[in-house]
Protein backbone atom coordinates (compact mmCIF):
# COMPACT_ATOMS: atom_id res chain seq x y z
CA UNK A 1 0.00 0.00 0.00
CA UNK A 2 2.81 2.39 0.91
CA UNK A 3 4.63 1.84 -2.35
CA UNK A 4 1.43 2.46 -4.23
CA UNK A 5 0.59 5.57 -2.21
CA UNK A 6 4.04 7.03 -2.58
CA UNK A 7 4.25 6.35 -6.30
CA UNK A 8 0.89 8.01 -6.85
CA UNK A 9 1.42 11.00 -4.62
CA UNK A 10 5.07 11.74 -5.25
CA UNK A 11 4.78 11.45 -8.99
CA UNK A 12 1.82 13.83 -8.74
CA UNK A 13 4.05 16.13 -6.61
CA UNK A 14 1.10 17.84 -4.98
CA UNK A 15 -0.82 18.12 -1.76
CA UNK A 16 -4.98 21.45 3.79
CA UNK A 17 -7.08 21.22 5.37
CA UNK A 18 -5.92 24.58 6.32
CA UNK A 19 -6.54 24.71 7.80
CA UNK A 20 -5.34 26.29 6.73
CA UNK A 21 -5.05 27.72 7.32
CA UNK A 22 -5.62 30.04 5.70
CA UNK A 23 -7.19 29.57 8.87
CA UNK A 24 -5.44 32.25 9.44
CA UNK A 25 -2.49 31.56 7.15
CA UNK A 26 -2.46 28.64 4.91
CA UNK A 27 1.29 28.26 5.29
CA UNK A 28 0.83 25.68 8.02
CA UNK A 29 -0.87 23.05 5.91
CA UNK A 30 0.02 19.51 5.01
CA UNK A 31 1.59 17.22 2.37
CA UNK A 32 2.40 13.76 1.06
CA UNK A 33 5.21 11.74 2.57
CA UNK A 34 7.82 9.35 1.22
CA UNK A 35 7.76 5.87 2.64
CA UNK A 36 11.12 5.88 4.42
CA UNK A 37 11.55 3.02 6.88
CA UNK A 38 8.38 3.61 8.83
CA UNK A 39 6.60 0.38 7.89
CA UNK A 40 5.41 -1.64 10.85
CA UNK A 41 4.82 -5.36 10.89
CA UNK A 42 1.26 -6.62 10.72
CA UNK A 43 1.66 -7.99 14.22
CA UNK A 44 2.75 -4.63 15.60
CA UNK A 45 0.05 -2.83 13.69
CA UNK A 46 -2.65 -5.07 15.12
CA UNK A 47 -1.21 -4.64 18.60
CA UNK A 48 -1.70 -0.89 18.29
CA UNK A 49 -5.13 -1.09 16.74
CA UNK A 50 -7.02 -0.56 19.98
CA UNK A 51 -4.42 1.58 21.73
CA UNK A 52 -6.35 4.79 21.24
CA UNK A 53 -9.47 4.02 23.27
CA UNK A 54 -10.30 6.60 25.86
CA UNK A 55 -10.43 4.16 28.76
CA UNK A 56 -6.87 2.96 28.14
CA UNK A 57 -5.61 6.50 27.60
CA UNK A 58 -7.13 7.59 30.88
CA UNK A 59 -5.75 4.57 32.74
CA UNK A 60 -2.23 4.94 31.39
CA UNK A 61 -1.96 8.75 31.45
CA UNK A 62 -3.80 10.05 34.49
CA UNK A 63 -3.09 13.76 34.48
CA UNK A 64 -4.36 14.18 38.04
CA UNK A 65 -1.86 11.59 39.30
CA UNK A 66 1.13 13.24 37.64
CA UNK A 67 -0.11 16.82 38.05
CA UNK A 68 -2.26 17.06 41.22
CA UNK A 69 -3.09 20.76 40.83
CA UNK A 70 -5.59 21.62 38.11
CA UNK A 71 -4.57 24.74 36.15
CA UNK A 72 -5.99 26.97 33.44
CA UNK A 73 -3.50 27.69 30.66
CA UNK A 74 -3.81 30.96 28.76
CA UNK A 75 -2.94 30.28 25.11
CA UNK A 76 -2.19 33.35 23.00
CA UNK A 77 -2.84 31.94 19.54
CA UNK A 78 -2.45 34.01 16.37
CA UNK A 79 -3.98 31.20 14.31
CA UNK A 80 -7.09 30.45 16.36
CA UNK A 81 -10.55 31.38 15.16
CA UNK A 82 -12.10 30.65 18.55
CA UNK A 83 -11.75 32.51 21.83
CA UNK A 84 -12.46 31.15 25.30
CA UNK A 85 -12.14 27.84 27.14
CA UNK A 86 -11.58 24.83 24.90
CA UNK A 87 -14.53 22.50 25.39
CA UNK A 88 -15.64 19.07 24.23
CA UNK A 89 -13.72 15.88 23.70
CA UNK A 90 -10.30 17.44 23.02
CA UNK A 91 -10.65 19.39 26.27
CA UNK A 92 -11.41 16.10 28.05
CA UNK A 93 -8.28 14.50 26.59
CA UNK A 94 -6.13 17.44 27.69
CA UNK A 95 -7.64 17.33 31.19
CA UNK A 96 -7.15 13.59 31.54
CA UNK A 97 -3.56 13.67 30.34
CA UNK A 98 -2.39 16.96 31.88
CA UNK A 99 -5.08 18.00 34.42
CA UNK A 100 -5.45 21.40 32.81
CA UNK A 101 -7.73 23.38 30.53
CA UNK A 102 -6.91 25.71 27.62
CA UNK A 103 -8.15 29.29 27.62
CA UNK A 104 -7.59 30.47 24.05
CA UNK A 105 -6.85 34.14 23.42
CA UNK A 106 -7.37 34.80 19.71
CA UNK A 107 -6.48 38.08 17.96
CA UNK A 108 -8.54 36.91 14.97
CA UNK A 109 -11.65 36.97 17.12
CA UNK A 110 -10.69 40.06 19.10
CA UNK A 111 -10.68 42.44 16.15
CA UNK A 112 -7.60 41.24 14.27
CA UNK A 113 -4.30 43.07 13.87
CA UNK A 114 -1.59 43.48 16.49
CA UNK A 115 -3.57 45.44 19.07
CA UNK A 116 -4.13 42.50 21.42
CA UNK A 117 -0.51 41.37 21.03
CA UNK A 118 0.80 44.83 21.86
CA UNK A 119 -1.55 45.31 24.81
CA UNK A 120 -0.65 42.00 26.44
CA UNK A 121 3.05 42.43 25.66
CA UNK A 122 3.04 45.84 27.30
CA UNK A 123 1.52 44.23 30.39
CA UNK A 124 4.45 41.79 30.45
CA UNK A 125 2.37 38.62 30.11
CA UNK A 126 1.45 37.47 26.61
CA UNK A 127 0.26 34.07 27.78
CA UNK A 128 1.34 30.73 29.24
CA UNK A 129 1.52 29.14 25.79
CA UNK A 130 2.22 31.36 22.81
CA UNK A 131 1.59 30.54 19.14
CA UNK A 132 2.84 33.33 16.89
CA UNK A 133 4.86 34.02 13.75
CA UNK A 134 8.63 34.29 14.21
CA UNK A 135 9.15 36.58 11.23
CA UNK A 136 9.93 40.29 11.19
CA UNK A 137 12.12 39.84 14.24
CA UNK A 138 9.20 38.89 16.47
CA UNK A 139 10.88 35.85 18.01
CA UNK A 140 13.89 37.94 19.03
CA UNK A 141 11.54 40.64 20.30
CA UNK A 142 9.75 38.11 22.51
CA UNK A 143 13.08 36.99 23.94
CA UNK A 144 14.38 40.52 24.42
CA UNK A 145 11.16 41.57 26.16
CA UNK A 146 11.34 38.57 28.47
CA UNK A 147 7.95 37.26 27.34
CA UNK A 148 9.01 33.66 26.62
CA UNK A 149 11.13 31.16 28.50
CA UNK A 150 14.49 29.67 27.63
CA UNK A 151 13.37 26.04 27.24
CA UNK A 152 16.76 24.50 26.40
CA UNK A 153 16.81 22.32 29.50
CA UNK A 154 13.06 21.73 29.54
CA UNK A 155 13.03 20.29 26.03
CA UNK A 156 16.34 18.42 26.18
CA UNK A 157 14.76 15.15 27.32
CA UNK A 158 11.49 15.33 25.37
CA UNK A 159 11.64 12.48 22.88
CA UNK A 160 9.00 13.60 20.36
CA UNK A 161 10.23 17.11 19.64
CA UNK A 162 13.84 15.88 19.66
CA UNK A 163 13.00 14.13 16.38
CA UNK A 164 12.90 17.58 14.81
CA UNK A 165 16.12 19.04 16.21
CA UNK A 166 17.22 20.36 12.83
CA UNK A 167 14.04 22.39 12.55
CA UNK A 168 14.32 23.57 16.15
CA UNK A 169 17.90 24.72 15.61
CA UNK A 170 16.92 26.50 12.41
CA UNK A 171 14.12 28.60 13.89
CA UNK A 172 16.10 29.42 17.04
CA UNK A 173 19.01 30.67 14.94
CA UNK A 174 16.87 33.81 14.61
CA UNK A 175 17.63 34.55 18.27
CA UNK A 176 20.98 35.68 19.63
CA UNK A 177 22.87 33.02 21.59
CA UNK A 178 22.59 29.24 21.65
CA UNK A 179 19.42 28.77 23.69
CA UNK A 180 16.12 27.21 22.60
CA UNK A 181 13.02 29.35 22.96
CA UNK A 182 10.48 28.00 20.48
CA UNK A 183 9.46 25.00 18.39
CA UNK A 184 8.46 25.48 14.74
CA UNK A 185 5.19 24.12 13.41
CA UNK A 186 4.45 22.12 10.25
CA UNK A 187 7.68 20.13 10.51
CA UNK A 188 8.09 17.36 7.98
CA UNK A 189 10.32 14.47 7.02
CA UNK A 190 9.58 15.12 3.34
CA UNK A 191 11.66 16.96 0.72
CA UNK A 192 11.13 20.69 0.33
CA UNK A 193 10.03 20.21 -3.28
CA UNK A 194 7.07 18.03 -2.28
CA UNK A 195 3.79 19.93 -2.03
CA UNK A 196 2.72 20.20 1.58
CA UNK A 197 -0.95 19.41 1.01
CA UNK A 198 -2.86 16.20 0.40
CA UNK A 199 -5.13 15.31 -2.50
CA UNK A 200 -6.33 18.91 -2.73
CA UNK A 201 -4.08 21.95 -2.71
CA UNK A 202 -4.60 24.70 -0.16
CA UNK A 203 -6.14 26.94 -2.82
CA UNK A 204 -8.41 26.32 -5.77
CA UNK A 205 -11.67 27.31 -7.49
CA UNK A 206 -14.21 25.00 -5.85
CA UNK A 207 -17.81 25.26 -7.03
CA UNK A 208 -21.07 23.49 -6.37
CA UNK A 209 -20.49 20.82 -8.98
CA UNK A 210 -24.15 19.82 -9.19
CA UNK A 211 -25.04 23.37 -10.22
CA UNK A 212 -22.11 23.50 -12.64
CA UNK A 213 -23.39 20.27 -14.16
CA UNK A 214 -26.93 21.66 -14.33
CA UNK A 215 -25.79 24.55 -16.54
CA UNK A 216 -23.92 22.24 -18.91
CA UNK A 217 -20.30 22.25 -17.66
CA UNK A 218 -19.41 25.47 -19.54
CA UNK A 219 -15.77 26.12 -20.38
CA UNK A 220 -13.94 28.54 -18.06
CA UNK A 221 -10.90 29.97 -19.81
CA UNK A 222 -9.91 32.61 -17.22
CA UNK A 223 -10.88 33.84 -13.76
CA UNK A 224 -13.16 36.43 -15.33
CA UNK A 225 -14.94 33.75 -17.34
CA UNK A 226 -15.99 32.21 -14.03
CA UNK A 227 -18.47 35.07 -13.41
CA UNK A 228 -21.06 34.31 -16.12
CA UNK A 229 -20.83 30.65 -15.16
CA UNK A 230 -21.52 31.51 -11.51
CA UNK A 231 -24.40 33.73 -12.65
CA UNK A 232 -25.96 30.82 -14.50
CA UNK A 233 -25.44 28.58 -11.46
CA UNK A 234 -27.03 31.08 -9.09
CA UNK A 235 -30.00 31.49 -11.41
CA UNK A 236 -30.37 27.71 -11.55
CA UNK A 237 -30.17 27.38 -7.76
CA UNK A 238 -31.65 30.57 -6.27
CA UNK A 239 -32.37 29.28 -2.76
CA UNK A 240 -30.39 27.36 -0.15
CA UNK A 241 -31.44 24.10 1.47
CA UNK A 242 -33.30 26.10 4.15
CA UNK A 243 -34.89 28.44 1.63
CA UNK A 244 -32.51 31.38 2.00
CA UNK A 245 -31.23 33.33 -1.01
CA UNK A 246 -28.06 31.88 -2.50
CA UNK A 247 -25.04 33.90 -3.55
CA UNK A 248 -22.24 32.72 -5.78
CA UNK A 249 -19.61 34.42 -3.59
CA UNK A 250 -19.55 35.34 0.08
CA UNK A 251 -16.64 37.04 1.90
CA UNK A 252 -15.53 37.97 5.43
CA UNK A 253 -12.97 40.31 7.00
CA UNK A 254 -11.53 38.23 9.86
CA UNK A 255 -8.19 37.45 8.26
CA UNK A 256 -7.33 40.78 6.63
CA UNK A 257 -3.66 41.63 7.24
CA UNK A 258 -1.42 43.58 4.84
CA UNK A 259 -4.30 43.45 2.38
CA UNK A 260 -7.83 42.16 1.99
CA UNK A 261 -7.30 38.45 2.60
CA UNK A 262 -10.12 37.23 0.35
CA UNK A 263 -8.74 39.35 -2.50
CA UNK A 264 -5.40 37.63 -2.14
CA UNK A 265 -6.79 34.08 -2.37
CA UNK A 266 -7.64 34.02 -6.12
CA UNK A 267 -4.13 35.32 -6.90
CA UNK A 268 -2.94 31.91 -5.69
CA UNK A 269 -4.76 30.36 -8.65
CA UNK A 270 -2.01 31.92 -10.77
CA UNK A 271 0.94 30.93 -8.60
CA UNK A 272 1.22 34.02 -6.38
CA UNK A 273 1.48 34.36 -2.62
CA UNK A 274 1.97 37.37 -0.38
CA UNK A 275 4.99 38.74 1.40
CA UNK A 276 4.12 42.08 2.94
CA UNK A 277 2.83 44.33 0.17
CA UNK A 278 4.30 42.09 -2.54
CA UNK A 279 2.68 39.23 -4.43
CA UNK A 280 5.48 36.89 -5.48
CA UNK A 281 5.18 34.00 -7.89
CA UNK A 282 6.21 30.60 -6.53
CA UNK A 283 8.95 30.14 -9.14
CA UNK A 284 10.45 33.62 -8.64
CA UNK A 285 9.44 34.76 -12.11
CA UNK A 286 7.35 37.77 -11.04
CA UNK A 287 6.99 40.20 -8.13
CA UNK A 288 4.13 42.72 -7.96
CA UNK A 289 3.18 45.62 -5.73
CA UNK A 290 -0.39 45.01 -4.67
CA UNK A 291 -1.49 48.60 -5.30
CA UNK A 292 -0.32 48.70 -8.93
CA UNK A 293 -3.17 49.32 -11.33
CA UNK A 294 -2.21 46.23 -13.35
CA UNK A 295 -1.48 44.00 -10.33
CA UNK A 296 -3.22 40.67 -9.98
CA UNK A 297 -4.51 41.93 -6.62
CA UNK A 298 -6.36 44.75 -8.36
CA UNK A 299 -7.56 42.24 -10.95
CA UNK A 300 -9.23 40.25 -8.16
CA UNK A 301 -10.79 43.38 -6.67
CA UNK A 302 -12.24 44.09 -10.11
CA UNK A 303 -13.46 40.48 -10.28
CA UNK A 304 -15.38 40.91 -7.01
CA UNK A 305 -16.66 44.33 -8.12
CA UNK A 306 -18.07 42.80 -11.30
CA UNK A 307 -19.54 39.96 -9.27
CA UNK A 308 -21.32 42.46 -7.05
CA UNK A 309 -22.71 44.34 -10.07
CA UNK A 310 -24.09 41.03 -11.31
CA UNK A 311 -25.80 40.29 -7.99
CA UNK A 312 -23.43 37.43 -7.20
CA UNK A 313 -21.80 38.83 -4.06
CA UNK A 314 -23.35 38.35 -0.63
CA UNK A 315 -24.15 41.86 0.75
CA UNK A 316 -23.38 40.61 4.28
CA UNK A 317 -19.73 40.04 3.30
CA UNK A 318 -18.59 43.21 5.09
CA UNK A 319 -20.16 42.35 8.44
CA UNK A 320 -20.10 38.56 8.87
CA UNK A 321 -17.32 36.52 10.44
CA UNK A 322 -15.90 33.14 9.43
CA UNK A 323 -18.30 31.16 11.63
CA UNK A 324 -21.33 32.85 10.10
CA UNK A 325 -19.95 32.22 6.63
CA UNK A 326 -19.33 28.56 7.43
CA UNK A 327 -22.96 28.04 8.41
CA UNK A 328 -24.00 29.50 5.05
CA UNK A 329 -21.84 26.94 3.27
CA UNK A 330 -23.42 24.20 5.37
CA UNK A 331 -26.83 25.43 4.25
CA UNK A 332 -25.86 25.46 0.58
CA UNK A 333 -26.21 29.25 0.43
CA UNK A 334 -22.82 29.86 -1.24
CA UNK A 335 -21.77 28.34 -4.57
CA UNK A 336 -18.04 29.16 -4.79
CA UNK A 337 -15.25 28.42 -2.31
CA UNK A 338 -11.60 29.59 -2.57
CA UNK A 339 -10.45 26.64 -0.47
CA UNK A 340 -11.41 22.96 -0.45
CA UNK A 341 -11.39 22.89 3.34
CA UNK A 342 -14.24 25.43 3.46
CA UNK A 343 -16.83 24.44 0.87
CA UNK A 344 -16.14 20.71 0.91
CA UNK A 345 -15.78 20.44 4.68
CA UNK A 346 -19.04 22.30 5.24
CA UNK A 347 -21.25 20.83 2.52
CA UNK A 348 -19.83 17.58 1.16
CA UNK A 349 -21.62 15.30 3.59
CA UNK A 350 -22.23 11.65 2.79
CA UNK A 351 -25.89 12.42 2.18
CA UNK A 352 -25.17 15.34 -0.15
CA UNK A 353 -22.51 13.47 -2.11
CA UNK A 354 -24.85 10.51 -2.42
CA UNK A 355 -27.36 12.87 -3.99
CA UNK A 356 -24.69 14.15 -6.40
CA UNK A 357 -24.39 17.49 -4.57
CA UNK A 358 -21.22 19.17 -3.34
CA UNK A 359 -18.12 21.24 -4.02
CA UNK A 360 -15.49 20.05 -6.48
CA UNK A 361 -12.63 21.74 -8.32
CA UNK A 362 -13.72 23.71 -11.38
CA UNK A 363 -11.51 23.63 -14.50
CA UNK A 364 -10.05 27.06 -15.28
CA UNK A 365 -7.90 26.72 -18.37
CA UNK A 366 -5.15 29.22 -17.53
CA UNK A 367 -4.71 28.60 -13.80
CA UNK A 368 -1.49 27.29 -12.23
CA UNK A 369 -2.16 26.96 -8.52
CA UNK A 370 0.34 27.91 -5.82
CA UNK A 371 1.38 25.05 -3.53
CA UNK A 372 3.45 25.38 -0.38
CA UNK A 373 6.37 22.97 -0.43
CA UNK A 374 7.09 20.76 2.55
CA UNK A 375 9.14 22.31 5.33
CA UNK A 376 11.81 19.96 6.71
CA UNK A 377 12.86 22.86 8.96
CA UNK A 378 9.30 23.78 9.90
CA UNK A 379 7.31 26.90 9.24
CA UNK A 380 7.76 30.43 10.55
CA UNK A 381 4.96 29.92 13.08
CA UNK A 382 6.21 28.73 16.47
CA UNK A 383 4.95 27.56 19.83
CA UNK A 384 6.68 28.82 22.98
CA UNK A 385 6.19 28.84 26.74
CA UNK A 386 5.44 32.18 28.37
CA UNK A 387 7.93 33.46 30.90
CA UNK A 388 5.26 33.69 33.61
CA UNK A 389 3.74 30.25 33.01
CA UNK A 390 2.67 28.56 36.23
CA UNK A 391 3.94 25.06 35.40
CA UNK A 392 6.54 25.08 32.57
CA UNK A 393 7.30 21.37 33.03
CA UNK A 394 3.68 20.46 32.39
CA UNK A 395 3.51 22.73 29.36
CA UNK A 396 6.70 21.19 27.97
CA UNK A 397 5.07 17.76 28.34
CA UNK A 398 1.97 19.06 26.57
CA UNK A 399 3.96 20.49 23.66
CA UNK A 400 5.96 17.27 23.36
CA UNK A 401 2.70 15.31 23.27
CA UNK A 402 1.35 17.54 20.48
CA UNK A 403 4.34 16.42 18.37
CA UNK A 404 3.81 12.72 19.19
CA UNK A 405 1.91 10.43 16.80
CA UNK A 406 -1.01 10.40 19.22
CA UNK A 407 -0.93 14.17 19.60
CA UNK A 408 -0.84 14.75 15.83
CA UNK A 409 -3.85 12.48 15.41
CA UNK A 410 -5.77 13.99 18.33
CA UNK A 411 -5.16 17.56 17.13
CA UNK A 412 -7.33 16.99 14.09
CA UNK A 413 -9.64 19.70 12.86
CA UNK A 414 -11.81 20.16 9.80
CA UNK A 415 -8.97 21.86 7.96
CA UNK A 416 -6.07 19.58 8.89
CA UNK A 417 -7.00 16.14 7.60
CA UNK A 418 -5.49 14.18 10.52
CA UNK A 419 -7.31 11.03 11.48
CA UNK A 420 -8.45 11.60 15.04
CA UNK A 421 -8.18 9.15 17.95
CA UNK A 422 -7.41 5.56 17.05
CA UNK A 423 -10.11 3.26 18.31
CA UNK A 424 -12.72 5.99 17.86
CA UNK A 425 -12.52 7.43 14.36
CA UNK A 426 -10.31 4.75 12.84
CA UNK A 427 -8.65 1.37 13.40
CA UNK A 428 -6.16 -0.94 11.74
CA UNK A 429 -8.08 -3.54 9.70
CA UNK A 430 -6.22 -6.18 7.69
CA UNK A 431 -2.96 -4.28 8.19
CA UNK A 432 -4.25 -0.97 6.89
CA UNK A 433 -6.07 1.98 8.49
CA UNK A 434 -9.80 2.28 7.94
CA UNK A 435 -12.36 4.73 9.26
CA UNK A 436 -14.86 3.37 11.75
CA UNK A 437 -18.56 4.04 11.25
CA UNK A 438 -18.20 6.87 13.75
CA UNK A 439 -15.16 8.18 11.86
CA UNK A 440 -17.08 8.22 8.59
CA UNK A 441 -19.84 10.22 10.22
CA UNK A 442 -17.49 12.63 11.99
CA UNK A 443 -14.81 13.11 9.32
CA UNK A 444 -16.65 12.54 6.06
CA UNK A 445 -20.09 13.75 7.08
CA UNK A 446 -18.81 16.73 9.04
CA UNK A 447 -20.07 15.92 12.54
CA UNK A 448 -21.28 13.20 14.88
CA UNK A 449 -22.43 12.78 18.47
CA UNK A 450 -19.56 11.63 20.66
CA UNK A 451 -19.97 8.34 22.57
CA UNK A 452 -20.84 8.67 26.26
CA UNK A 453 -17.40 7.41 27.34
CA UNK A 454 -15.99 10.39 25.42
CA UNK A 455 -18.32 12.79 27.20
CA UNK A 456 -21.01 13.03 24.54
CA UNK A 457 -21.60 16.29 22.70
CA UNK A 458 -20.63 17.23 19.16
CA UNK A 459 -17.46 15.93 17.51
CA UNK A 460 -17.05 19.12 15.51
CA UNK A 461 -17.53 21.42 18.46
CA UNK A 462 -14.98 19.47 20.46
CA UNK A 463 -12.03 19.43 18.05
CA UNK A 464 -8.86 21.28 18.96
CA UNK A 465 -9.33 25.02 18.59
CA UNK A 466 -5.58 25.68 18.54
CA UNK A 467 -5.69 25.51 14.72
CA UNK A 468 -2.01 24.83 14.13
CA UNK A 469 -0.15 21.85 12.75
CA UNK A 470 2.82 20.41 14.57
CA UNK A 471 3.67 17.77 11.94
CA UNK A 472 2.39 17.81 8.36
CA UNK A 473 -0.62 15.45 8.19
CA UNK A 474 0.70 13.90 4.99
CA UNK A 475 3.81 12.71 6.80
CA UNK A 476 3.94 9.04 7.73
CA UNK A 477 2.74 8.06 11.19
CA UNK A 478 5.65 5.90 12.45
CA UNK A 479 3.26 3.79 14.53
CA UNK A 480 0.84 2.79 11.76
CA UNK A 481 3.16 3.19 8.77
CA UNK A 482 0.56 5.25 6.92
CA UNK A 483 -0.06 9.01 6.55
CA UNK A 484 -1.73 10.91 9.38
CA UNK A 485 -4.04 12.36 6.72
CA UNK A 486 -6.92 9.90 6.35
CA UNK A 487 -7.85 11.25 2.92
CA UNK A 488 -4.64 9.67 1.59
CA UNK A 489 -5.54 6.16 2.76
CA UNK A 490 -6.47 3.63 0.08
CA UNK A 491 -9.50 2.63 2.18
CA UNK A 492 -10.83 6.20 1.98
CA UNK A 493 -9.91 6.72 -1.66
CA UNK A 494 -11.88 3.59 -2.46
CA UNK A 495 -14.94 5.27 -0.98
CA UNK A 496 -14.89 8.07 -3.54
CA UNK A 497 -17.55 6.40 -5.64
CA UNK A 498 -20.54 8.57 -4.87
CA UNK A 499 -22.55 10.13 -7.70
CA UNK A 500 -20.73 13.42 -7.03
CA UNK A 501 -17.27 11.83 -7.19
CA UNK A 502 -17.92 9.70 -10.25
CA UNK A 503 -19.51 12.53 -12.22
CA UNK A 504 -16.53 14.80 -11.48
CA UNK A 505 -14.06 12.02 -12.28
CA UNK A 506 -15.74 11.18 -15.58
CA UNK A 507 -15.90 14.82 -16.66
CA UNK A 508 -12.35 15.70 -15.57
CA UNK A 509 -10.65 12.48 -16.63
CA UNK A 510 -8.92 11.96 -13.27
CA UNK A 511 -9.58 10.18 -9.98
CA UNK A 512 -8.50 13.05 -7.72
CA UNK A 513 -7.93 16.79 -7.79
CA UNK A 514 -4.23 16.11 -7.45
CA UNK A 515 -4.17 13.84 -10.47
CA UNK A 516 -6.15 16.30 -12.59
CA UNK A 517 -3.94 19.29 -11.78
CA UNK A 518 -0.79 17.28 -12.30
CA UNK A 519 -1.96 15.98 -15.66
CA UNK A 520 -2.74 19.55 -16.72
CA UNK A 521 0.57 20.92 -15.38
CA UNK A 522 -1.42 23.33 -13.24
CA UNK A 523 0.59 23.23 -10.01
CA UNK A 524 3.40 25.59 -9.03
CA UNK A 525 5.28 24.44 -5.92
CA UNK A 526 7.21 26.93 -3.78
CA UNK A 527 9.90 24.79 -2.12
CA UNK A 528 9.69 24.90 1.66
CA UNK A 529 12.64 26.80 3.09
CA UNK A 530 13.94 28.19 6.37
CA UNK A 531 13.45 31.77 5.19
CA UNK A 532 11.95 34.14 7.74
CA UNK A 533 11.51 37.83 6.99
CA UNK A 534 13.98 39.91 9.04
CA UNK A 535 13.03 42.50 11.61
CA UNK A 536 11.91 45.85 10.30
CA UNK A 537 12.63 49.12 12.06
CA UNK A 538 9.95 51.01 13.94
CA UNK A 539 9.52 53.58 11.18
CA UNK A 540 8.76 50.90 8.60
CA UNK A 541 6.37 49.21 11.01
CA UNK A 542 4.53 52.47 11.61
CA UNK A 543 4.25 53.21 7.88
CA UNK A 544 3.11 49.65 7.18
CA UNK A 545 0.39 49.91 9.81
CA UNK A 546 -0.97 53.10 8.27
CA UNK A 547 -0.74 51.82 4.70
CA UNK A 548 -2.35 48.46 5.27
CA UNK A 549 -5.30 50.07 7.05
CA UNK A 550 -5.87 52.26 3.98
CA UNK A 551 -5.38 49.38 1.54
CA UNK A 552 -7.89 47.19 3.36
CA UNK A 553 -10.43 49.99 3.73
CA UNK A 554 -10.26 50.99 0.07
CA UNK A 555 -10.17 47.39 -1.18
CA UNK A 556 -13.54 46.72 0.42
CA UNK A 557 -14.91 50.02 -0.89
CA UNK A 558 -13.75 49.15 -4.40
CA UNK A 559 -15.46 45.77 -4.29
CA UNK A 560 -18.75 47.47 -3.46
CA UNK A 561 -18.26 50.51 -5.71
CA UNK A 562 -21.36 51.75 -7.52
CA UNK A 563 -19.72 52.33 -10.89
CA UNK A 564 -16.53 51.88 -12.90
CA UNK A 565 -15.72 55.53 -12.32
CA UNK A 566 -16.02 55.13 -8.57
CA UNK A 567 -13.93 51.95 -8.64
CA UNK A 568 -11.13 53.69 -10.54
CA UNK A 569 -11.40 56.81 -8.42
CA UNK A 570 -11.09 54.78 -5.22
CA UNK A 571 -8.06 52.96 -6.62
CA UNK A 572 -6.36 56.22 -7.49
CA UNK A 573 -7.19 57.70 -4.09
CA UNK A 574 -5.81 54.61 -2.34
CA UNK A 575 -2.60 54.77 -4.37
CA UNK A 576 -2.09 58.47 -3.71
CA UNK A 577 -2.84 58.14 -0.01
CA UNK A 578 -0.45 55.28 0.73
CA UNK A 579 2.27 56.75 -1.49
CA UNK A 580 1.97 59.92 0.53
CA UNK A 581 2.46 57.90 3.71
CA UNK A 582 5.74 56.38 2.47
CA UNK A 583 4.46 53.14 0.93
CA UNK A 584 7.51 53.01 -1.37
CA UNK A 585 9.86 52.57 1.60
CA UNK A 586 7.96 49.53 2.84
CA UNK A 587 7.58 48.13 -0.67
CA UNK A 588 11.33 48.32 -1.30
CA UNK A 589 11.98 46.21 1.79
CA UNK A 590 9.22 43.73 0.95
CA UNK A 591 10.54 43.37 -2.59
CA UNK A 592 14.01 42.53 -1.32
CA UNK A 593 12.57 40.10 1.19
CA UNK A 594 10.53 38.39 -1.52
CA UNK A 595 13.64 37.94 -3.66
CA UNK A 596 15.64 36.68 -0.68
CA UNK A 597 12.84 34.23 0.03
CA UNK A 598 13.08 32.92 -3.51
CA UNK A 599 16.85 32.47 -3.12
CA UNK A 600 16.20 30.41 0.02
CA UNK A 601 13.63 28.34 -1.87
CA UNK A 602 16.10 27.63 -4.65
CA UNK A 603 18.67 26.50 -2.09
CA UNK A 604 16.10 24.33 -0.31
CA UNK A 605 15.19 22.69 -3.62
CA UNK A 606 18.86 21.94 -4.31
CA UNK A 607 19.28 20.43 -0.86
CA UNK A 608 16.28 18.17 -1.47
CA UNK A 609 17.69 16.73 -4.69
Give a short synopsis of this structure.
With 609 residues, the chain is of the alpha+beta class. It contains 26 helices and 16 strands.
In spatial order, strands of the major sheet run: 2-3-1-4-13-5
The low-confidence parts are 1-53, 55-60
Strand residues, percent: 5-15%
Counting DSSP H or I runs of 4 or more residues, the number of helices is 26
The general outline is globular
- Based on secondary structure, the structural category is alpha+beta
Round the mean pLDDT to the nearest integer and report it: 88
Distance between the termini: 25 Å
Number of DSSP-assigned strands = 16
Give the % helix: 25-40%
Question: Can you characterise this structure?
Answer:
With 609 residues, the chain is an alpha+beta fold. It has 26 helices and 16 strands. Strands 2-3-1-4-13-5 form a six-stranded mixed beta sheet. A hairpin with a 2-residue loop joins strand 7 (272-275) and strand 8. Helix 13 (296-309) packs parallel to helix 24 (538-559). It is globular. The model is unreliable at 1-53 and 55-60 (pLDDT under 50).
Question: Secondary-structure map with pairings?
Answer:
Layout lengths: L1 H11 L29 H7 L5 H7 L2 H4 L4 E7 L6 E2 L2 H11 L1 E6 L9 H8 L6 E5 L4 H7 L7 H5 L8 H8 L9 E3 L21 E3 H6 L11 H11 L24 H4 L7 E4 L2 E4 L5 E3 L6 H14 L12 H9 L5 E2 L2 H8 L2 H5 L4 E3 L7 E4 L8 E5 L6 H11 L2 H6 L15 E4 L2 E4 L1 H8 L14 H4 L27 H4 L5 H10 L4 H7 L3 E4 L11 H22 L4 H18 L1 H26 L1
Parallel strand pairs: 1-3, 1-4, 12-16
Antiparallel strand pairs: 2-3, 4-13, 5-13, 6-10, 6-11, 7-8, 8-9, 14-15
Helix pairs in contact: 13-24, 14-15, 24-25
Amino acid sequence: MKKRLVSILLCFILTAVTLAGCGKKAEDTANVAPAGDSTVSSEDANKTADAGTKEETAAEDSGAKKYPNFITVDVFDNLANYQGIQSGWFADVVKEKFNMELNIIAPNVAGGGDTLFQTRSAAGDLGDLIIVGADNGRLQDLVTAGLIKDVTDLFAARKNISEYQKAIDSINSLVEGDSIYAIPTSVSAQPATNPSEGLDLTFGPYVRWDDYKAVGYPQIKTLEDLLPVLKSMQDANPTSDSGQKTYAISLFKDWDGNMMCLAKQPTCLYGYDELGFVLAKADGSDYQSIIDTNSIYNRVLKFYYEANKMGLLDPESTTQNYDTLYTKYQDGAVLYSPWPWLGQAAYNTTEHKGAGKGFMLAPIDDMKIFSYGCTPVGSKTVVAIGSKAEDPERLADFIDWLYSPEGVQMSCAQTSGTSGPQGLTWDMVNNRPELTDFGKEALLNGDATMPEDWGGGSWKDGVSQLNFLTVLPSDINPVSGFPYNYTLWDSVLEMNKTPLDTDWQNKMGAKTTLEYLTNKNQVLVAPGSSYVAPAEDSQITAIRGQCKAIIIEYSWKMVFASSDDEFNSLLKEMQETVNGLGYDKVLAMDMQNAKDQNTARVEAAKASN
